[in-house]
Write a structure and sequence with these properties.
Two copies of one chain form a homodimer. Chain A is an all-alpha fold. The first copy, chain A, has a domain of 350 residues: Na+/H+ antiporter like fold. Chain A is 64% helix and 3% strand.
């Protein structure tokens, strides 16, 4: 790792600037403004005569103003790009075009602007000056420069390879448009990842937790290892052919394997959402992609940390290897803990204060606490992005239940907007980077090799893992699901952010270029091919899941009482043979216990009996679940609401959260009508709840997973209130 | 202006760092993380032996990591501060404590942390190195440093006065905690100002527009001039007494007058909101404070631009003076135009696309367009903050009407949260800055003089201006209102941001310190004294204005049909003699025409007949208002909805926006019951509208301003639907 790139300078501003043809129209008033400022500057020139250094001051001031103006223009470029993207997305959605997703579109627009920037702007000289301060033998992050008696402070921005020192001045503008990689990690990724965690559909996620964990951890590791090894072969080949002269170690190949293993099937999931494809497949894909982002980020930093002792620094060293594994486990569990702890703290704060009377305060607190997770993890040397993911999951699981109705929609919408903007920004920046990034290394052999490797790497973990998982799963993962998962191996924002983070060495530059191309082609081709693929693989679509009702908050409160909104859809499709045990008409209670592993059951009952009552207003009172000698503590921690309604209140609420919230379709009471008696399920249990003194966790588990409908609904009275719009 | 401070370096990161006692508990896991990282670093040390520069790399890497960690910790400090503030605010609101506003609270917490930072942390040496590169005679914004063959790029951060070069290394931490002033202007102020514009209660604002403009423009100019002259006297006195040795010109005094003339009665307005004080007084105060922020910012930059030619650079020069005035007018009108144009473009885009089917896209577009105003203005050399203000007003007036119901609440809530966070951040930073800012100059004479000057400056524009305004106003501004306006001269975020922008010279440092103290005392003392003052001045409170119904979106659609929600409240209070012509039972139509100036009426009819129909879905069809030869154009621009309902549809909607949205109290249908027949007003006109072929603008003006209730309501059928919660 070169020193320059390791430094974290000003990501917010160390940024992009230059005149843009696209902006020509917008920039007409600029000339006027310039004239004004020039006048001001000219008149200030008079006064400056008094001071001997006035002319210098003026020059610096003008330079600073110019730099500020250029920063504004370049940010404006990106905003214009995003605006254009939004308008075209609207057009696409309006005309129901599905072959190109908004992210693909953002990349295309980025590419166009990139081409314009690259070939359409004159290569004017920059504002830099080269100082030869050779008396020091290393670079410092801060520099105090004594310029004829005055001291100026400079901060390190990065190293420039010696060959490019001259080109720096030539391509000042292009260099400026490629902005600091840390922006991705510190500003753009956190909202994306948090939103992924916060919008996780818990029920389906937890039902497939084992498989998701297997795919995410084992799968990513296998994929990383296979891609790394294949690429090492490719690199060897390139050396033989004479295409590669620079250093390219085995660890570099593994690093490439790690960063490229982070899948991001954003376009596939968007189409799943739009077509209402199978929820289990959705959960598998979404869960895998969310977690393997976390795995990939930690894996890549562990590989960077793998540094064997001794002279032969790139040979295998068991001690260093285990140290890397230790670092992986340490960082991962540390980040996980940090995220979970912040989530729990937020849940406690929102539970024990009456903040919910003031939604603005509540939303602000929620936002700050979630952000602080990121900073806390970074401050502790863990990975902020991973912490934010688990914080999001915890917030959705606990805190969300304590929020006021208004704050729920506020927080959802806030993070939805942030997520949307950040994601589209990253993708349009990717398009831009293909032409404006200065250090591209296009190596055809490496690129072709990489495409083959990621294909094989994905195949080598999806199919074997699915085979082993199917041995233990009751809901088998069918061949069509496996093919679909194989197909959905898109690469996106995370791979890009990891690749751009360090582009100091030749090997890393080659990786970056290859990653960029892989992202482009997977997003475009796979994104466009999803709809045909779905029908070709016979995967059921049109599963109407009423997961978006609480978009309309006013309907929500009626809905909640009468309907369990997240239960299995009825068996209404031809491809259903794959998931035979899936309908509510199957064997009953026994199934769930077999299906969910003992560890999940253990966790569930612990969560239900202790965590939920402590952290939220729902669940059984602690006084009934805790042993008698904890009586006082239990009474303090249990909120009074629990005694009033001893029901599993609102447990399904957080499943309401939108997953890809760019399409708000409302489905009314489709589930209620689709499945007859199931509509009255929650209502009737809540009626029972009042009479029951102690609810067994096993019973609640069954109830919550949607089993035993017939039994329960035959006793209770269906409490389905008239729906405001559909009734 | 010194060169160093004029440069705009990395505001996002050039930031704050250090261990905090408050954070001690939170930072325990840090040690663990540090251990991990140290392990990684140590193992990487082995491999580094291969390269001769490896040790340096390692050192730089570790330095960068440490710097990144410190950045996280310091940001975390601020987040913790905000979290603490939020929790305490909740407690205060919960217990109905009114003597201390949240901003005052944020300052107190900031002060406490500042004291801890200042006196509680050891003065460890920094990580800087001093290089003496004396071969150049000026500073450049970018530096290429050749360090033993490697090139490093440095960016200029600012100048350090020679006397402080040594102290820089000593107080590294404290220096870092005072972060870049441009952050305030580019990140924190825009959302605050935009929110102010977006949440303006249009009806009351426009009814008092003349007075507001007078207070904002004339008043600020008078105040600036008077304060400047008084302070010049104070400075002379200080020179005589021997308290001032450095330069302090007349222009500096005027500059101080400009920055300190920006009032920010945030605490007063919050209390007004809470107590539902008189709406006209609220409109006057809020409108004045919003606009005088804009005036102050442009005025101060015009004063900086005032640089007379010739040797005696600080004497009066007519040419330079008029140039300054020209700059003022140019920047102000330019910024105004820019903001209005962006708002209009957004309105057109939202009108002519069906974006409202996709609230997420709509919200994102709205956000981006609003932000682009800021950047566009900055890129053109205008003032982004001012442009954003007028953009907000335009968005509220036109675009808001085109948005979907969901986007309305989303945009409101988004900017509300941003505003809340930014405002509290600024105020807590102010508290912090009192102790951590390195260049304070406390001058008792100057500070006392400033307090006297701002008092006199405010008195000298409120009372005379009110006198002149009362000559033309039908609703006289009573003495109690004048006293209240006099009393509400708080200084806040804008004064601070303007003062901290340039603290290079001794004079500016003195101004900054004084501004900080003025903000503290005005916020604390005036904020605490508002409630007693209101009752002492006999200003009516408890005016129930149903301006917050559409908080509950589900009720809104019912409400809109039957009720004109923004009309005058009934005369129900003792202090009513002040506004005698205010009730709906007064003389009728004639009143409004007299009350509103002809220019306002002209604008109103132009707005109603042309702008609203072009930019929104409401108003009369253009085919009826435009001359016949524009038929084709008119048909293209008029939206089909207008023909369906030729009513002044939704014109009052944007008045719904919360002004100080930290308290969401709902008032149900209080207006409906409070004023009998007025409830059916809009509904009946909309029934009529269908029958009317051409609506005269004068008629609509009367209707919109709430006159002629009796006439209209006697003809129409009251269409008040049952309210969901109150019925």
């Amino acid at each position: 790792m070169e020193p320059g790139d390791a430094v974290h300078p000003s990501p917010w501003r160390a940024v992009w600037a230059l005149p843009l043809r696209l902006l020509l129209l917008l920039l007409l008033p600029l000339l006027l403004g310039r004239g004004l400022r020039a006048g001001a500057a000219a008149s200030s020139a008079g006064a400056a005569a008094e001071d001997s250094s006035a002319m210098e001051e003026l020059a610096t001031e003008k330079e600073a103003e110019e730099s500020h103006r250029q920063d504004s223009v370049s940010l404006l470029t990106f905003i214009l790009l995003l605006t254009l993207t939004i308008l075209t997305i609207w057009l696409f959605k309006h005309r129901r075009v599905r072959f190109l997703h908004e992210t693909g579109l953002a990349m295309i627009y980025g590419l166009i602007v990139g081409v314009i920037l690259r070939y359409g702007t004159p290569a004017t000289s920059g504002r830099d000056k080269s100082l030869s301060c050779t008396q020091e033998d290393r670079a410092f992050s801060t520099l105090l420069v004594n310029v004829s008696g005055k001291f100026f402070e400079y901060t390190l921005k990065g190293e420039i390879s010696p060959g490019k020192v001259n080109s720096v001045e030539q391509n000042d503008m292009l260099r400026k448009v490629t902005f600091d990689p840390e922006v991705f990690f510190n500003i753009l990724l956190p909202p994306i990842i948090f939103h992924a965690g916060y919008s996780l559909k818990k029920r389906h996620f937890f039902r497939n937790l084992g498989s998701i964990l297997a795919y995410a951890f084992l799968g990513t590791a296998v994929s990383c290892f296979i891609i790394g090894n294949l690429m090492y072969g490719v690199v060897k080949l390139m050396k033989i052919v004479g295409q590669l002269s620079d250093k390219f170690y085995y660890t570099d190949c593994l690093f490439f394997g790690a960063i490229i293993s982070a899948t991001d099937p954003v376009t596939v999931l968007a189409i799943f959402n739009e077509l209402h494809a199978d929820v289990d497949l959705y959960a598998l894909l979404f869960g895998e992609s969310v977690l393997n982002d976390a795995v990939a980020i930690v894996l890549s930093s562990s590989i960077v940390a793998y540094q064997p002792a001794g002279l032969n620094t790139h040979a295998f060293d068991a001690a260093a290897f285990f140290k890397s594994v230790g670092i992986f486990l340490g960082i991962f569990s540390g980040s996980f803990t940090m995220g979970a702890v912040t989530g729990v703290v937020t849940a406690l704060v929102t539970k024990f204060t009456k903040l919910h009377c003031f939604p603005l305060l509540e939303t602000a607190l929620f936002f700050l606490m979630s952000w602080s997770t990121f900073l806390l993890a970074e401050a502790c040397g863990f990975t902020g992005v991973v912490a934010v993911l688990f914080c999001g999951i915890t917030q959705a699981h606990y805190t969300y239940n304590n929020l006021s109705v208004e704050s729920r929609s506020r927080t959802k919408q806030l993070f939805e907007v942030l997520h949307f903007l950040a994601e589209n920004f990253i993708f349009s920046y990717m398009g831009l980077a293909l032409f404006t990034f200065q250090k591209h290394v296009f190596s055809p052999i490496f690129i072709i090799g990489a495409f083959v490797a990621i294909f094989l790497g994905r195949a080598a973990h999806i199919y074997p893992l699915s085979f082993f998982l199917n041995l233990g799963r009751r809901h088998k993962i069918g061949w069509n699901f496996q093919h679909m998962m194989m197909f959905s191996g898109l690469r996106g924002a995370m791979a890009f952010a990891l690749a751009i983070r360090d582009t100091a060495s030749y090997a890393r530059q080659m990786m970056f270029t290859t990653t960029l191309l892989i992202v482009f082609f997977t997003v475009w081709i796979i994104g466009g091919g999803t709809t045909p693929m779905l029908s070709w693989l016979n995967i059921r679509v049109g599963v109407e899941e009423p997961s978006e009702e609480d978009q309309n908050e006013h309907r929500w409160q009626y809905f909640r009482v009468g309907v369990d909104p997240d239960q299995d859809p009825p068996p209404n499709n031809d491809s259903f043979q794959v998931l035979q045990g899936d309908g509510p008409d199957s064997v009953g209670g026994n199934r769930t216990k077999q299906e969910s592993a003992w560890i999940f059951r253990l966790w569930y009952s612990f969560d239900h009996n202790y965590l939920k009552p402590i952290l939220t207003h729902s669940g059984p009172p602690l006084t009934t679940t805790l042993p008698a000698w904890c009586g006082l503590l239990a009474r303090c921690l249990t909120s009074p609401q629990v005694y009033d309604n001893q029901e599993p209140l609102r447990e399904e609420d957080s499943d309401f959260i939108l997953t890809e919230g760019d399409l708000t379709l409302t489905y009314g009471d489709s589930t209620v009508t689709a499945n007859g008696s199931s509509g009255s399920h929650t209502a009737s249990t809540s009626l029972e709840g009042g009479r029951r003194t102690k609810s067994s966790s096993e019973e609640v588990l069954e109830r919550d997973l949607g089993i035993g409908d017939q039994k329960v609904s035959s006793r209770g009275t269906p409490l389905v209130f008239p729906l405001q719009e559909n009734a």
